[in-house]
Amino acid sequence: MKERLLQLFERFDTLSQRERATIAGAVLFGLLVIGYLALIDPQISRQAAQAKRIVQIKNDLATLETQISALQAQHKDPDASNRAALQEVRKTMAAIDMRLRNVQDSLVMPEKMQEYLEGLLARNRNLELISLRTLPVAPLIEQSGGGQDLDGRGAKGGRSGKPAPLSGNNLATNIYKHAIELRIAGSYGDLLAYLEAIEAMPQRTVWANAELVVEKHPRCVLTLTVYTLSLDKLWLVV
């Protein structure tokens, strides 16, 4: 093992200064990505998993509310226990709504994603935006039934095409991923600074993937996919 390392160091010493800089930059970028995956990404992933569990619980409660309502409909004068159970379910669902909103508020709003990413780019004039495009909205929880929500609506919500408000009787039954893919060019240092700026923002986004290509030293191209979470399906196309 020691001999292998010595051979690698000897080969590194024989490289030109430009080749050394290219290798060093690639190592730095790799260390940043590894650090993000080890420290930042697990926290955001746990938050997304928590939101997913909350949505599943809410869907179960929605089913329970439907069953209780059906029992009430069978009697002209529902008994007090049924009414109390229904009221308790609605209180629980209201609390879950608040937890979902808190998760959503900690992330960048979908309609602000483009402004958010371009604003960070504007801080470094050495970076060049090659392309920026939105990706199709994807549900955090996959559902069967032809792509419909549990309330039977398609991708545009109600008849008006607007997302339904979140309430005890009109439920948002999923959380949606709104993603943007952007390609930016610059030096290793400038691209690393951009990624660090994204991590430092108070409102967060989630990295889906990142790919770095060295075109011609010192110019590199970074393809980055980031997404945020929202209770609404509607997505502004860039």
TrEMBL record:
Keywords, comma-separated and alphabetical: Membrane, Transmembrane, Transmembrane helix
Pfam entry (one): T2SSM
Segments passing through the bilayer: 21-40
Residue ranges with Gly residues bias: 144-160
GO cellular component: type II protein secretion system complex
Region feature Disordered, mapped onto this chain: 143-167
BP terms from Gene Ontology: protein secretion by the type II secretion system
Protein name, per record: MSHA biogenesis protein MshJ
